[in-house]
Write a structure and sequence with these properties.
Layout (H helix, E strand, L loop, with lengths): L2 E11 L15 E5 L11 E13 L17 E6 L7 E6 L7 H12 L18 E6 L4 E6 L3 E3 L11 H4 L15 E4 L11 E5 L1 H4 L6 E2 L2 E2 L2 E6 L7 E4 L7 E2 L10 E8 L13 E11 L4
Antiparallel strand pairs: 1-17, 2-16, 3-14, 3-15, 3-17, 4-5, 4-8, 6-7, 7-9, 10-13, 10-16, 11-12
Length: about 290
Amino acid sequence: MNYIQKEQSYFFTSNSKFLRIPPTLNGSRFTVNLQAPIMVPSNAEGTTISCTEFALTHVNPNVSGSFPNEQANNKIMFIFNDGYNPSENIDITLDDGNYTPDSLNLEVQTKLSQVVIPWSDPPTFFSPTSIIITANPGSQRIILSLAKELTLVTNTAPNVVNVMPLLGWPHTHPNLSPSFPGQIFVAPQVALLNRVNVYLLHAPSLLQSSGGIPVNAIPQTILATAQVNVPAGNLLTVEPINPTQIPADHLKYNSGNDYTFYLTDEQLRPINTLGEVFSFKVVVKYMVPARTL
C-alpha cells in the first residue's frame, strides 16, 4: 500500500494579546483554547509531534527576592567602620535581574552611591567605587575591590538573604575585611551566575502519555529544549535541523481544545520570564493511505 505524508503546523505564543487567560507563574505558563482540537485521521500511521522553532529571551533572574524555599539572594551587606565612630550595618537590596559581573557591578555601585555615609556631616554619599566587581573569564571567579572602611558580610546563616554565595563566597566564609584601600579579594569558588543552563518547554496536554523528550532518562512531557548560549538579556532561538519526533498516535482521539504549555529550567523550576514573551512552532506529521483510482 502506498502512503502520503501529511503535515499540520501550529504557532503558539505566550503573548497575552492572543490568549483568553493571561499567562501565570511569572509568565512561564499559559493555556490556549483552539477552535478545533489538534487531531489526525483515524487511519493515520506514524504520527509524530515536533517543535521546529523555539524562541525566548534569556532573562530568568539569577538575583531575586522571590526565589522559593529560602533561596532569595537579593541583598549585599556591609559593615561600615571609619575607625572613629561605632560601626554601622548597611544592607543594599538589589533589583531582580539576570546579572553579568559588569551589570551587577553597575547595580551595586548605583545603589551604594545612594547611601549616606554614617556619621558624615554634612551628609555625604558613598563613592560608587567603594566596591568594584569584576571577573576572571578563565577561572569564572569574581574579583572584588573594597574601600578600607567597608567589611563585606559573607559569614551568615544558610537561609540569610545574601548574594555572596552566588558570587562564589559560601556562607561559612569569613567576612571580607580589607587592610588597605582597594584591597582585592578573589572568590574561592566559581560564580553561579548561570542559574539556568537549559530551558525546557513542557506540553502535557498536547503530548499526554507519549512522554516527550526524556530528561535524565525520565519522560517529562517536554516538547523542546533550549541550551543557554547567549548572554543575559538576549534572544535565544532554536531551529533544529532534525527536531526530535515524538510519537503521537493519541492525536487520533479528541482530547479537548485546551492546551497548556510552560517553561522550566533543567531542575524543573518554573521560569520567571520578567514579562518577556516566548513562542514556538509545532509540527504534526503523519502518513495516510494514498487514494487509488
